[in-house]
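Hi support team,

I've been running sequence recovery on a batch of backbones for a student project. Most finish fine, but this one hangs at about 90% for roughly twenty minutes before it completes. I'm not sure whether the input is malformed or the queue is just slow. I've pasted the structure tokens below so you can try to reproduce it. Let me know if you need the job ID as well.

Thanks,
M.K.
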């Protein structure tokens, strides 16, 4: 497999998943501004015409895009279902529920605007001061007394932890949500998460 990524972006959730499951992959860093591979300057748009990360080239040569789809594909390579409940189960539906929530209500609805230089100041303020607190309140209520979003660590936790890394750079103090902050700190010390975070931080 080949993972196309940008350091500390949403693609880090896939790196975490690969490390958690002990799966081999090649990693190709993408420059999101020029849409080129960092190693050789080749055109990333030839791989993913959307120009976004992650993208995954499977061992069969197929190209997958969109984080939630890639996360489930990689998780399903594990016959023991350690990172995703089996397809067709209520557990899998709940996993998809969380992946969709993180992708649409946290990642795109909030951080897209906070990190996009073209976003109007009013949009940034609304995302940071209104949208994000509501999302973090909801997540805090769900995680209170729980170790993970589901019954065990899953690709949804990898995705959520990745997005929580963006809070401080966006000027958001997680200390306002003690449950969420404590959860994030516990996840960050998992060996696979710490390895992925450390490697990608070194590339920034």
């Amino acid at each position: 497999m080949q993972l196309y990524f940008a350091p500390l972006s949403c693609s880090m959730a896939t790196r975490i998943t690969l490390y958690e499951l002990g799966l081999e992959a090649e990693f190709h860093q993408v420059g999101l501004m020029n849409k080129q591979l960092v190693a050789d300057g080749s055109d990333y748009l030839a791989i993913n015409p959307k120009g976004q990360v992650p993208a995954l080239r499977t061992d069969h040569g197929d190209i997958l895009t969109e984080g939630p789809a890639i996360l489930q594909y990689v998780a399903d390579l594990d016959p023991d279902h350690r990172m995703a409940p089996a397809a067709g189960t209520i557990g899998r539906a709940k996993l998809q529920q969380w992946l969709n929530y993180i992708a649409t209500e946290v990642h795109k609805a909030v951080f897209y605007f906070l990190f996009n230089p073209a976003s109007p100041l009013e949009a940034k303020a609304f995302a940071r001061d209104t949208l994000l607190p509501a999302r973090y309140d909801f997540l805090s209520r769900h995680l209170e007394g729980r170790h993970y979003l589901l019954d065990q660590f899953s690709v949804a936790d990898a995705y959520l932890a990745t997005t929580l890394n963006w809070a401080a750079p966006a000027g958001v103090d997680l200390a306002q949500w003690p449950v969420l902050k404590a959860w994030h700190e516990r996840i960050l010390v998992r060996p696979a998460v710490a390895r992925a975070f450390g490697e990608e931080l070194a590339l920034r």
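--
Follow-up from support: It reproduced on our side and the slowdown came from queue contention, not your input. Helices lie at 12-21, 67-75, 90-115, 121-143, 155-164, 178-188, 191-201. No action needed from you.
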